[in-house]
Design a protein that fits this description.
By secondary structure, the chain is α/β, with parallel strands linked by helices. The protein has helices at about 20-30, 50-55, 65-70, 95-100, 110-115, 135-150, 220-235, 250-255, 305-320, 325-335, 365-375, 390-395, 395-400, 430-435, 450-460, 475-480, and strands at about 10-15, 35-40, 55-60, 80-85, 105, 125-130, 155-165, 165-170, 175-180, 185-190, 190-195, 205, 240-245, 260-265, 275-280, 285-290, 295-300, 345-350, 355-360, 380-390, 405-415, 445, 465-470. Helix 6 crosses helix 9, helix 6 (about 135-150) packs across helix 10 and helix 9 crosses helix 10.
Length: about 475
């Protein structure tokens, strides 16, 4: 990766700007004073509203002339293009045009790694990377919310569109910390198969777990463990890493870290920070936190799920390491109200059912979400599920079909295909749905989103029910169609 001279850069163009990894970067770049614009497909995403609100110019195509027009009149050394790995990655026509004009190109992972250092903003920042196969968006959002509540004015880039109640998921603050979500997926699937997280060199890191989630990139769990080991060993000198002590795969690799890396653990037993007495009420969760030498007392979290109380424990551990008082930590944790597409309360149907949405796209995440919502709301759950990527669907089909035990009924939508799926990955909708019918009594196979909406309207579920849309594609649109204004 060629070094960018950030003192010269004036304009930045974002290819795939609507992605939840790209959009926060564009907000940060605009706040830093760069002239920005971007491109994406015309389809509406959860990020569109935020981009419009921030008056960011978006082209709904990938025509080469957009690059010539945007960078017209300025030399190439003052120009930069940041691209997603999607939309054909480096083979995208706008990326190829930029390269032909000698404009430097970074992928999202490379750019985020540079952003957390503070170099593009002319100052040094303390990076806090939050990663893991599950929970990284939630913990990142909790962390950003906590630092905001503590008047730290953090910088952050979180893989969603909005964090409640602080607002947009990307921000350049005046404080010394930059909180970033670390993604183990690759920067560009064809030409740069370096896991994006390896571009981040933070002072602090939280690793929540290690699981097998990207069968198109990793052959087995050992590959993922090796990447996480490389990430930790690439951290700054005397870095501090917070590990979930309840995760076996994390315990397997901790002895492979550099000697100067300080390891701090959090978990339900035998950890530096221990969570106990978790009480899930309707509307909030109470839990106790203790260290090896003191009890911090009772914390309150205002989002569903025992797993989210555990996520909050990671935030508590880091804040305590930064010597934040117990009372301030409690206020910071309770301040968080969730984020888009993470057990988000979307609204209510005309007949009184609550509509929620979640990004869960792995069997482990689906089970955790359903269990949490069942305890939090104490209602019957109707699930609308859309699997994302055929490669993941094939790898985990049996596990997916066994993940909806808490659901009263399951509505299936055809798999949301990824651009990185190959013909070898494709399975038929019939094969996909049949595996669910073997495990569940009530399964409706919708032809598309509109069919799912019409079916659910016809059922007229009342206030004894929750309708949960879940998956990493565009299944959330079902909820938006069902809710009343």
């Amino acid at each position: 990766m060629e070094k960018v001279d950030w003192k010269k850069i004036e304009r930045i163009f974002f290819v795939g700007i609507k992605g939840v990894g790209m959009m926060p970067l564009s907000l940060i770049a605009k706040e830093a004073g760069y002239t920005i614009a971007g491109s994406d497909i015309p389809e509406e995403f959860i990020t569109d509203e935020v981009l419009r609100k921030n008056n960011i110019r978006i082209f709904s195509d990938f025509k080469e002339e957009r690059i010539e027009d945007f960078f017209q009149g300025i030399p190439s050394e003052k120009s930069l293009l940041i691209t997603t790995g999607a939309h054909r990655g480096y083979d995208n026509p706008q990326v190829k045009k930029a390269q032909a004009l000698n404009i430097q190109v970074l992928n999202q992972g490379q750019a985020l790694g540079i952003f957390i250092s503070g170099e593009p903003f002319g100052r040094k920042l303390q990076g806090i990377t939050v990663t893991g196969s599950h929970g990284k968006t939630t913990i990142s959002a909790m962390m950003a919310s906590a630092f905001y509540r503590l008047n730290q004015d953090p910088s952050f880039a979180v893989g969603t569109s909005s964090i409640f109640p602080i607002g947009d998921s990307g921000h350049l603050g005046n404080g010394e910390y930059f909180i970033a979500e670390g993604d183990e997926y690759v920067g560009e699937p064809k030409y740069d198969r370096v896991p994006k997280i390896l571009y981040q060199k933070p002072k602090f890191a939280v690793i929540n777990n290690i699981d097998f989630d990207h069968p198109d990139i990793y052959e087995n769990i050992e590959d993922v463990k090796n990447v996480m080991t490389r990430f930790v060993n690439g951290m700054q000198k005397s870095g501090i890493v917070f590990l979930n002590s309840d995760d076996k795969n994390l315990n397997d690799i901790r002895n492979n870290f550099r000697e100067d890396i300080e390891i701090i653990t959090y978990g339900e037993k035998d950890a530096d920070y221990v969570i106990s007495d978790v009480l899930e009420n309707i509307g909030n969760i109470h839990f106790e936190v203790s260290t090896r030498n003191r009890n911090m007392g009772d914390f309150v979290l205002n989002v569903p799920g025992r797993h989210n109380a555990k996520n909050a424990l990671a935030v508590v551990a880091l804040l305590d390491t930064l010597e934040i008082s117990d009372e301030d930590k409690k206020q910071a944790v309770s301040f968080y109200k969730g984020c888009r597409r993470r057990m988000e309360l979307v609204g209510m149907t005309e007949t009184g059912a609550q509509v929620l949405d979640d990004y869960g796209h792995h069997p482990t995440e689906i089970i955790s979400t359903l269990n949490a919502l069942k305890k939090f709301y104490n209602k019957k759950i109707i699930c609308v599920f859309q699997s994302h990527t055929y490669s993941r669907t094939k790898e985990f089909l049996k596990e997916f079909s066994e993940s909806f035990g808490e659901a009263e009924e399951l509505v299936l939508i055809p798999v949301f295909k990824s651009q990185r799926d190959t013909e070898h990955d494709i399975i038929s909708y019939g094969e996909f749905s049949e595996s669910f019918r073997k495990n569940l009594k009530k399964v409706y196979t919708a032809k598309d989103i509109s069919d799912a909406v019409e079916y659910l309207k016809h059922k007229k579920y009342n206030d004894e029910y929750i309708i949960l849309t879940i998956g990493a594609g565009d299944v959330y649109k079902v909820g938006y169609e069902l809710k009343i204004e």
